[in-house]
Structures are given as structure tokens and as C-alpha cells.
Write a structure and sequence with these properties.
It is built from no helices and eight strands. The protein is mostly beta strands and 100 residues long.
């Protein structure tokens, strides 16, 4: 059984027991979260799409992790203008519990 869930504006294909990295979700490690925006459910080959879906996906937050460093470098030639800015996006690792 799998489901397609909308989390923070992105779609993820999830299964029970799967670990997943999603954009940052508020909460501490061990907190339970629920995702009601389920777009598709496959239950043993039986697809359910749209407003017929009555399931929710439950998950547990494992912790936060930072992604790779992304550098934005701006420069204008012959002007002496250089600007180097970097950032690391924060992701949350979750474990999918139950699709019910």
C-alpha cells in the first residue's frame, strides 16, 4: 500500500515504515504529525483518487538535518563588485507510521 501526500507544497510517494526527508516541519524529535492532504491511495492495486479519499498519513519526526551548502556568487566585470552568499536549507527527517 502506498499513498501520494502533499507536504509543504511538494508531493511525496510514501509507504508505511519509510524514512523521508521533507522541507522543515515545526516540532521536536518524537512528535507525531498528521498529513491530511492525500492525493492518491493504492491499496493492493485498487486506486483511489480525488475527493473519494478518506485516509490520513501519520508520521513521527526523527530530527532536523541541514542540506548541502548552496553558494550564490554575483559579480560585475570591471566594476570591482563581488558578492558571495551561501545558505544551507533545513530538512526534517520523518518516519511514516500508518496510512489510515
Amino acid at each position: 500500500m502506498f499513498a501520494v501526500v502533499k507536504i509543504s507544497g511538494q508531493q511525496f510517494k510514501v509507504q508505511e515504515g519509510q524514512n523521508l526527508y521533507v522541507p522543515h516541519i515545526e516540532g521536536k524529535a518524537g512528535d507525531k504529525v498528521e498529513f491530511p492532504d492525500v492525493l492518491l491511495v493504492d491499496n493492493a492495486g485498487n486506486l483511489t483518487i480525488g475527493s473519494d479519499i478518506k485516509v490520513k498519513v501519520n508520521a513521527e519526526i526523527i530530527g532536523d538535518i541541514q542540506g548541502d551548502k548552496v553558494i550564490a556568487f554575483k559579480m560585475k566585470r570591471r566594476k570591482g563588485f563581488r558578492k558571495k552568499i551561501g545558505h544551507r536549507t533545513v530538512y526534517t527527517q520523518i518516519k511514516i507510521g500508518k496510512i489510515a
